Amino acid sequence: MKKYLLIIFAACAVNQLHGQSPVIIQKDAEIASMVAEVSADSMKTNIARLVSFGTRNTLSSTTNPQRGIGAARNWILNRFKSFATASGGRFTARFDTSTYKPDGKRIDSTVVLTNVVGTLKGTDPNDRRVFVISGHMDNMRSNVMDRTGIAPGANDDGSGTAAVMECARIMSRHKFPATIIFVAVCGEEQGLLGAGFMAANAKRDKWQIEAVLNNDIMGSNNSNETNIINNTRVRVFSEGLSAFELTEQKAAAIRAMGLENDGPSRQLARYVKEVGERYVDNLEVVMIYRPDRFLRGGDHLPYQQQGYAAVRITEMNENFNHQHQDVRMENGVQYGDLPEFMDYEYLRKNTAMNLSNLANLAKSPLAPQDVSIAVVALSNSTELSWKAPGGKVAGYYVLMRETTSSVWQKKIFTADTSIKLPYSKDNYFFAVQSVSAAGNEGLPVVPTVSRKR
After folding, report:
1. Coil, helix or strand for 7?
2. What is d(CA 19, CA 368) in angstroms, rounded to the nearest whole number?
3. Residue 33 domain flag
4. 326 and 298 in one domain?
5. What is the pLDDT of residues 92-116, one digit of tens each?
6. Residues 427 and 301 in one domain
7. Coiled-coil region(s) at which residues (predicted)?
8. pLDDT tier at 2 (50, 70, 90 boundaries)?
């Protein structure tokens, strides 16, 4: 709470000088109500069901009705379909399939790979934005090719899959201007295949994906080796810059303005931290300045490679005794990704953090257009301007942070499409975001340079 009070007071000080309205950051009552519905018991039940399939290895049986990846994906699809009635027809569910041939690496026979996709259609026909939440239903033992042995996969990634399902259960009963996609992907352990397939198709079909929240290993609170136990912090991984279409000219401009930490995914991570901590008590979202864990990868990476903003959400302290391990007792240590090592209250908080972000994004207005910072003469003030995006926009937040800060520090409201601030562009970064009448802000847009008088 102290953080947000600082933002409010700083904004008021600026606004008193320039006649702008003070920023009062409030929770959206509808979002707060949805957050309160997130149930640890609901997710515990769903994870128990996922574990009951014995294994969810991508190469496991697709025809056995009780065991294997086929049974698991059928159950997830049926759960998604059960949400459709309360949505008034706006929520639909389907399989999205592709066929992969043996690759000599992680696929030794032809496999039909199937993602389960739930779509909550936006209510505004002019709003083409899509927001994605993802978790992978597949799992593995010590050997990724072992398709028959017991593999519970409670945390990796039963936790992410349960989070996706819980968000779908709650959000399908509400209306949003933009579209939200809930996806349980397959083939993650075989090389991010399901996410790669979906991201490539989204690019081909010109989906306007604005943000991807990938949840992978987010439901346990302790680490091996260090024995740290903490369920009050969660990590969000993001790349600083996107290599997608990064031309030499664009790279030169980024270097000149010092924007190495302001790529789309890093902006999304800042947003996830601010909104998540606003709605979820006793949870700190820790930004990690890496695309993923050290030399590792996840299902958000294929989206980044297609030019989309995407982040990975993962528990603070991973326990490798319970990850990619055969279930066994060895030297008094229990190995295996078993349900008893889950912290369902921690999973509830992390899921609520996802839900609050998805809802705030999907309720936000379209982004301001042609945001620019004037550079026509040497000056210790900063002039920003932009164009209205169309649709319902109550106004705009102008964001500021010192160049050494990882997060936005000040938030200034204006109903205009330009503003002059008594702060030097030498010392601060700026961005602009649209805001709705209910206070739902969109993703920040970093200004380009304008040399027009």
Report:
1. helix
2. 21
3. no
4. yes
5. 999 999 999 999 899 999 999 999 9
6. no
7. none
8. very low
Query: Quick one: which of 382, 377, 438, 448 has its CA closest to 410?
Result: 382
Domain with 125, as residue range(s), is 38-363
Could you tell me if 364 and 279 are in contact, meaning their C-beta atoms sit under 8 angstroms apart? Answer: no
Q: Which two tokens stand for residue 10?
A: 């700083």
Instruction: Tell me which of 317, 343, 363 is where a domain ends.
Output: 363
Q: Is the CB of residue 144 less than 8 Å from the CB of residue 193?
A: no
What does 112-161 look like in DSSP terms, one character per residue?
EEEEEEEEE--S-TT--EEEEEEEE-----SSTT--SS----TTTTHHHH
Residue 403 maps to which CATH number? 2.60.40.10
Beta strand residue intervals within 289-392, DSSP E: 310-315, 328-330, 333-335, 369-374, 382-387
Final residue of a domain: which of 363, 395, 426? 363
pLDDT in tens, 231-272: 999 999 999 988 777 778 888 888 888 889 999 999 999 999
- Predicted model pTM: 0.94
In a domain, 402, yes or no: yes
Is the domain of 158 the same as that of 113?
yes
Maximum separation of any 2 CA atoms in the chain, in Å: 74
Peptide linkage before 108 cis (omega within 30 of 0):
no
Count CA atoms closer than 13 A to 263's CA, side-chain side.
25
Same domain (yes/no): 67, 158: yes
